[in-house]
Automatic annotation (TrEMBL):
<protein>
    <submittedName>
        <fullName>OB-fold nucleic acid binding domain-containing protein</fullName>
    </submittedName>
</protein>
<dbReference type="InterPro" id="IPR016499">
    <property type="entry name" value="NucleicA-bd_Rv2694c_prd"/>
</dbReference>
<dbReference type="InterPro" id="IPR012340">
    <property type="entry name" value="NA-bd_OB-fold"/>
</dbReference>
Length: 125
């Protein structure tokens, strides 16, 4: 009982003493591994990746004449900005929604970005 018991108690104390945002980040990063997605912190520029996370924010960014819809996806480790060019609104893309997105990762202004990603809305769980 020393090997598993110590781990159990350590996890229990951590869950009882951690704040809600830390626990949520841990849950998200576990889901990422379960569905076979890549953690955002492990993504490198130029790679074709699949990421899973919760949308923190969604905003319309009118730059010049072309509108873009930007959403920040957080997977428990790091954020990835999803950018849909020429879109003002996409049904289901709203803060708090969990989605899986796939595309080629780029870096813009020091942030990881997926342009026009393929996406799947996930069931709330």
């Amino acid at each position: 009982m020393t090997g598993t018991g110590g781990g159990y108690w350590r996890r229990l104390v951590r869950r009882l003493s951690a704040d809600a945002s830390e626990l949520d980040a841990d849950d998200l990063s576990r889901k990422v591994a379960a569905v076979g997605a890549v953690r955002a912190c492990d993504c490198k520029s130029g790679e074709e990746v699949t990421v899973l996370g919760r949308l923190r924010s969604v905003e319309l960014c009118p730059r010049d004449a072309a509108a873009t819809l930007e959403a920040e996806l957080f997977d428990g480790t790091e954020g990835v900005t999803l950018v849909w060019l020429g879109r003002r609104r996409i049904a289901g893309i709203e803060p708090g929604r969990t989605i899986k997105a796939r595309g080629r990762i780029a870096v813009r202004d020091g942030r990881k970005v997926l342009y026009n990603p393929y996406y799947e809305l996930q069931n709330a769980s």
